[in-house]
Design brief:
This protein has helices at about 10, 15-25, 45-55, 70-85, 100-110, 125-135, 155-160, 180-195, 255-270, 275-285, 290-310, 335-345, 375-390, and strands at about 30-35, 95, 115-120, 135-140, 165-170, 200, 230-235, 250, 315, 325-330, 350, 350-355, 365-370. It is α/β, with parallel strands linked by helices. The protein folds into two domains: about 10-35 and about 290-390 and about 400-405, Alpha-Beta Complex (Aspartate Aminotransferase, domain 1); about 45-285, 3-Layer(aba) Sandwich (Aspartate Aminotransferase, domain 2), CATH 3.40.640.10.
């Protein structure tokens, strides 16, 4: 008797290293988790009321695969107001069941098996997985701490090959918190235009920027010649504290949306109608909740910076956005996986090892400062105490501590 086998493609998809940490933390009573990438708040009362009202009104049927027209118009108006970009709600916007589905469908629409996709690394794990599920080849380009983990056009240009089809952009970045400037994005845009590449831009953290005078992170779609070469993935999860609603959208040229909508209809028929009505209220609503969360994240960032400022054993890459800190643990003499495991086992604090975000994350750990401030303060204190206990001399040849200045 022959036993059926699993597909090689499925077996090639790596398990999320973030999920591994969650699983370990659940087994440690009273552990402080600094690894959850979501706001500590929930959606505003106005958003909840809009969703509940849609249920009472019986608006619970299938919707247009592109999304409810009012949702698409709300997304268009929001994008115009916040990002200064204009999209046709009838042809260039599609509602999505969260950003990760958007990433997958965007890639599926533009790459063929064997095509390469450049992924600046460290990166959000879903990027690599989505490329592999589409039969593509991930090609990572290392982000440099000396450049603040910003995208570097020259490095991307050197990675382009005859099968390169797209570049994934993520700014503000997860796990690094880096915000790539409009000028740097313009240089990346030149590379995309010269080589005929798509830019797939994950902008789910765009409202959480800590640079003076910047209300929203710049988008590569704003660069000259890039709007028709860019697929923007956006989400309501972070901006409006709606992670469990699974509500996002794509912004892309009409011929791309034609393909993503065709595939989406075959995969999930339509997006949750109640979540869309809640999304309309979020996108059309005032900015008070977003501004409050930004202030809270800035306070959380300060807790991390102050808590690690006197630590002899860690170096902090200055976080410019999102709600993550990426910490260099190499001076402890431990790998980031060892550091993460021992910190949880001995001090009851969960952080994500950098390897979960690609090989280029080795030697670092990610922590989130979106949670409760008192738990964050205590977790950072334990983190610093553990690191100092394990301190060794900095072993990395050419390591430049000025590039990791924790006072930034």
């Amino acid at each position: 008797m022959t036993t059926p086998t699993l597909g090689l493609n499925a077996e090639s998809i790596p398990r999320s290293g973030i999920r591994d940490v969650f699983d370990r933390a659940e087994k440690v009573p009273g552990a402080i988790s600094l690894c959850v990438g979501e706001p500590r708040h929930t959606a505003s009362p106005a958003v909840a009321r809009a969703a509940c009202d849609s249920i009472r009104r019986g608006l619970t049927t299938y919707t247009d695969i592109l999304g409810i027209p009012d949702f698409r118009h709300a997304a268009a108006n929001y994008t115009s107001r916040v990002k200064g970009l204009e999209y046709d709600p009838d042809h260039e916007i599609q509602a999505m069941e969260g950003a990760t589905m958007g990433i997958f469908l965007a890639l599926k629409a533009v790459i063929d098996p064997g095509d390469e996709v450049i992924i600046p690394s460290p990166f959000f794990p879903s990027y690599q997985a989505a490329v592999l599920m589409c039969g593509g080849v991930p090609r990572t380009v290392a982000l440099s701490p000396r450049n603040g983990m910003h995208l570097n056009a020259e490095d991307i240009d050197r990675a382009v090959g005859p099968r390169t089809k797209a570049v994934i952009i993520n700014s503000p970045g997860n796990p690094t918190g880096a915000v790539t400037s409009a000028e740097e994005l313009a240089d990346v845009a030149d590379v995309c235009i010269r080589h005929g590449l798509w830019a797939i831009s994950d902008e789910v953290y765009h409202r959480f920027v800590f640079l003076p005078g910047v209300d929203s992170a710049p988008s590569i779609a704003s660069a000259r010649g890039m709007k028709n070469r860019t697929i923007i993935i956006d989400s309501l999860s972070k901006t409006f504290a709606m992670t469990g609603w699974r509500m996002g959208y794509l912004l892309a040229p009409a011929h791309v949306i034609e393909q993503t909508s065709k595939m989406a209809e075959l995969v999930h028929s339509s997006v949750n109608s109640m979540a869309q009505y809640g999304g309309i209220a979020a996108l059309n609503g005032p900015d008070e909740d977003v501004d409050r969360m930004r202030r809270e994240y800035l306070d959380g960032r300060r807790i991390v910076v102050d808590g690690l400022a006197g630590c002899r054993s860690l170096r902090l890459i200055p976080s410019e956005g999102a709600f993550y800190a990426f910490v260099d643990v190499r001076p402890t003499g431990m790998s980031s996986e060892e550091f993460s495991r021992e910190l949880l086992a001995r001090y009851g604090v969960a952080v994500v090892p950098g390897e979960a975000f690609g090989a280029e994350g080795s030697g670092f750990v990610r922590l989130s400062y979106a949670g409760d401030p008192e738990s964050l303060r205590e977790g950072v204190r334990r983190l610093a105490d553990f690191a100092d206990e394990r301190t060794q001399s900095i072993p990395t040849e050419g390591f430049d501590p000025r590039a990791m200045d924790a006072t930034a």
